[in-house]
Amino acid sequence: MNWRWNFLEKLRFDYEGELLNKRGRGSFYEEVCVEYLIKNGFDILHRNYRCKLGEIDIIAKKDDIIRFIEVKFRGSGSYGSALEAVDFRKQRRIMRAASWFLNEYGLNDAQCSFDVMTVENNEARYYFNCYGGI
Q: How far, in Å, CA of 75 to CA of 122, rounded?
């Protein structure tokens, strides 16, 4: 399933000064994605979860499904699409970190989904259940 929404240009320009470096842009777009998730009924369980096996941008829950969400931004298509950036290596790292998270919090029997939120050309998309499974 794929959801799309457009960013408000004013919001982007309000933060333009903070978007100059890669980390600032990433934090900005992650924040916008979190706001979108909250407005659409998701509970945010964790942001920027890190363990020795990897990192997960957003861990959210909706309808008793734990969603491990990777956020990817692309300013241009010169390095491929944002969705293509979540390659097999990245997926494997996220799945390992997700397994660690589930074990750490005693959620081994939880239903999971590996999702990707992309931002390209001032448009964002949410791709549900893109890959893998534990």
A: 8
Distance CA 2, CA 26 (A): 21
* Radius of gyration for the chain, computed over Cα atoms and rounded to the nearest angstrom: 15
Neighbours of 102 (CB within 10 A): 18
Q: Which DSSP string do the residues of 65-128 spell out, in sequence order?
A: EEEEEEEEEESSGGG--TTTTS-HHHHHHHHHHHHHHHHHTT-TT-EEEEEEEEEETTEEEEE-
Amino acid present at 63: D
Copy the structure tokens of residue 85.
């950036």
User: CA-CA-CA-CA torsion for 99, 105, 109, 114, nearest 10 degrees?
Assistant: -40
pLDDT in tens, 56-105: 999 999 999 999 999 998 776 667 788 888 999 999 999 999 999 999 99
